[in-house]
Amino acid sequence: MTFKPISQAIDIEEVRHLSKLTGDCLEQKEKRDKELEAIIKGEDDRLLLVIGPCSSDNEAAVLEYAKRLSALQEKVKDRIFMVMRVYTAKPRTNGDGYKGMMHQPHIGEAPSLINGIKAVRNLHYRVITETGLTTADEMLYPENLSLVEDLVSYIAIGARSVENQQHRFVASGIDVPTGMKNPTSGNLSVMFNGVYAAQNKQSFLFNSQEVETSGNPLAHVILRGAVTEAGKYQPNYYYDNLVDTINQYEKMGLQNPFIIIDTNHDNSGKQYLEQIRIIRQTLINKAWNPKINQVVRGFMIESYLEDGRQDEARVFGQSITDPCLGWEKTDALIQEIYRTLGEQNGHS
């Protein structure tokens, strides 16, 4: 065996105790979780935005962003519900250099998983307790779910994980909305099979125990575009794509049909400014087709303090992974969405 332990076993309960929600903060999270569940079930017609940095690389910058987003959420709360992306295990796609806060709590320093876990929990905890927002994270490593499950209100399963049986089965035991992206090939059947597995009861081996799950009726799809064999980006947020995805939902008889459009990644070709156009076009499609309006009710947006990206962490609040919309454009976009929703529903 080539596996060599380099730290002591982690006491999960001890780590969780360091940043445990209590009192008013816990009540606020539970209230927002119920609101989010109602949105996924179609009982609340507000638009869902899962929004924030591609990767949460810097605690101070993420908290500054969260405070701005919280103030904006208050202004648009009657039409828009926002869950902040606090993605703490997200590395650079090719694995070059940065591997996410979970591995590297301090950029440029050696990896430290134990300190990383504490930093991850502390960041989610501070966003929730200091701003009143609730948070989303990506389940990159299913075995690490227990590290954040009591803090996180939304889980995403990425394009490279959605085909993995363990991710699907673990998703069936999650009790918050779980979005499952289409794979990079764009194969919708793979994604829908993942949602089917997540929505149903499963029995499997997890963290050295045989477990049973009850199924997650809040599992749903995220359309993030694809890449062709020739290496070209192939968006899947267009009108016909949405109709096809809704038809597949109906064909499979899945619970709580809900579609989120990932506005970056292969839908935008990682041209971050395209996120604005993609949202505008989708809102037009929602207004044109009642069925699309009923099912396509969320966007995933990559946004930070500064536009674009950088290779080295020199600019405060600028992404070191995928390029993001800066705050000024984010603020303007959300207020534009708010006005558009009002106009479409006959409100000033």
The gross shape turns out to be globular
Identify the CATH class.
Alpha Beta
Order of helices and strands: HHEHEHEEHEHEEEEEHEHHHEH
Q: What is the rounded Rg?
A: 19 Å
Report the β-strand fraction as a percent range: 15-25%
| Fold-level CATH name | TIM Barrel
Mean pLDDT: 92
Spatial ordering of strands, largest sheet: 1-2-3-4-5-8-11-12
InterPro entries: Aldolase_TIM, DAHP1/KDSA, DAHP_synth_1
EC number: 2.5.1.54
Organism: Streptococcus ovuberis
Pathway: Metabolic intermediate biosynthesis; chorismate biosynthesis; chorismate from D-erythrose 4-phosphate and phosphoenolpyruvate: step 1/7
What's the layout of helices and strands?
Layout: H1 12-17, H2 23-40, E1 47-52, H3 59-76, E2 80-85, H4 113-131, E3 135-138, E4 152-157, H5 165-171, E5 178-181, H6 188-199, E6 203-206, E7 209-212, E8 219-223, E9 226-227, E10 233-234, H7 239-252, E11 259-262, H8 265-268, H9 274-288, H10 290-295, E12 296-302, H11 327-344
Parallel strand pairs: 1-2, 1-12, 2-3, 3-4, 4-5, 5-8, 8-11, 11-12
Antiparallel strand pairs: 6-7, 9-10
